[in-house]
Specification:
InterPro entries: HATPase_C_sf (IPR036890), HATPase_dom (IPR003594), PPM-type-like_dom_sf (IPR036457), PPM-type_phosphatase-like_dom (IPR001932), Ptase_RsbX (IPR039248). The chain is α+β, with helices and mostly antiparallel strands. It is built from 7 helices and 15 strands. The protein folds into 2 domains: about 5-130, Histidine kinase-like ATPase, C-terminal domain (Heat Shock Protein 90, 2-Layer Sandwich), CATH 3.30.565; about 140-330, PPM-type phosphatase domain (Phosphatase 2c, domain 1, 4-Layer Sandwich). Helices cover about 25% and strands about 30% of the residues. A hairpin with a 4-residue loop joins β9 (about 220-225) and β10. α1 (about 10-25) runs antiparallel to α2 (about 30-50). The longest helix is centred in the first third of the chain and has 21 residues, at about 30-50.
Length: about 325
């Protein structure tokens, strides 16, 4: 599922529950785990209706995971949770559900985070692993994407590759939206995977890809390589993919080179710098509004990368294009 489900009445509960079951079943998850996913989907969606009256839900299988991980995002713009401790007690939920509190939802999830307050509503993110969660090697990275509201295929794409020695990220946005844009993004991702320089030289990868795809529909893209354990970042970008580095609350926007893949061969704009423990990187397509202070409320950037990505994918979503976001955090201490 690559579209937000609007939660406005009781019918949304069944829609979200079926989506969770369908995605897990399609990837051959164990029956017990499918049932637990359904419980979380039901409980969290019911709570949106009870406490905020309306909101949104997104259920994703990350592109890099082949269905071995499922992510759920529940978000609303209600009054927030005034007594968080009470809501984590079992039995604190809607009378129309199983009566589970946030504590039970957290126990059923492999990963859980929540951001709530009177000015920001409530966003809950849950991740589920089919087997053992994958190691992060000191770099926690997550990607999310949603379609244009009138499309079934997403023209944005991302790759996340992690090994003990490096984390590599591609985020690209095929021109336009829908089927043709998705095909353009697929051409870019396949070219990146074929590149002799993938996993080492973003600028060289960008040159290879732009040279191969001259005359194609094209896309804009950003590539990031993080060498580990040195935590040195190398970056190349072409077109309007936004990349931000957040360090101790200070936000630096990385430059890009104007243009697109499909026009001419180029290495794009390149930069190399050292990362520090706690650094946060955010990459997003122009399906999200420019991330200014209004979309970055106090406390958000201290949350998990998944929570940050889910919150921003909702609050900054333009609603007239595909949208994608990748959020990366360098561990504050060695894993």
């Amino acid at each position: 599922m690559k579209q937000w489900v609007e939660v406005q009445d009781q019918s949304a509960i069944a829609v979200v529950r079926r989506a969770a079951r369908s995605l897990a079943t399609r990837h051959d998850w164990p029956k017990l785990r499918i049932d637990e996913l359904a419980i979380v989907a039901t409980e969290a969606t019911t709570n949106i209706l009870r406490y905020a009256e309306q909101g949104r839900v997104l259920i994703n299988a990350p592109a890099e995971g082949k269905g071995d991980e499922i992510i759920m995002i529940f978000t609303d713009r209600g009054p927030g949770i005034s007594d968080m401790d009470q809501m984590f007690q079992d039995g604190m939920s809607s009378g129309d559900s199983a009566g589970l509190g946030l504590g039970a939802i957290r126990r059923l999830s492999n990963g859980f985070d929540i951001f709530s307050g009177p000015e920001v509503g409530t966003t809950i993110v849950c991740s589920f692993a089919k087997e053992a969660p994958r190691p992060t090697y000191g770099v926690e990275a997550v990607g999310l994407r949603v379609c244009h509201p009138n499309e079934d295929e997403c023209g944005d794409a991302y790759l996340l590759r992690q090994t003990p020695k490096a984390t590599d990220i591609l985020l690209c946005d095929g021109l336009g939206h829908g089927t043709d844009a998705a095909a353009a993004s697929l051409e870019v991702t396949e070219a990146v995977l074929r590149s002799r320089s993938f996993n080492s030289e973003p600028g060289a990868v960008m040159h290879e890809v732009t040279e191969q795809l001259i005359g194609k529909r094209g896309a804009v893209a950003a590539l990031v390589h993080i060498a580990q354990p040195q935590m040195v970042l190398r970056y190349a970008a072409l077109g309007n993919i936004a990349t931000l580095r957040v360090r101790d609350g200070d936000i630096k926007r990385l430059p890009v080179r104007d243009g697109r893949i499909g026009a001419r061969a180029t290495r794009g704009y390149e930069e190399t710098f050292d990362l520090e423990p706690g650094d946060l990187l955010i990459l997003h397509s122009d399906g999200l509004k420019t991330l200014r202070d209004g979309y970055l409320p106090q406390g958000l950037l201290w949350k998990s990368p998944l929570l940050i990505a889910g919150y921003l994918l909702d609050r900054a979503f333009r609603g007239r294009d595909d949208a994608s976001i990748v959020v990366i955090r360098i561990a504050r201490s060695a894993d």
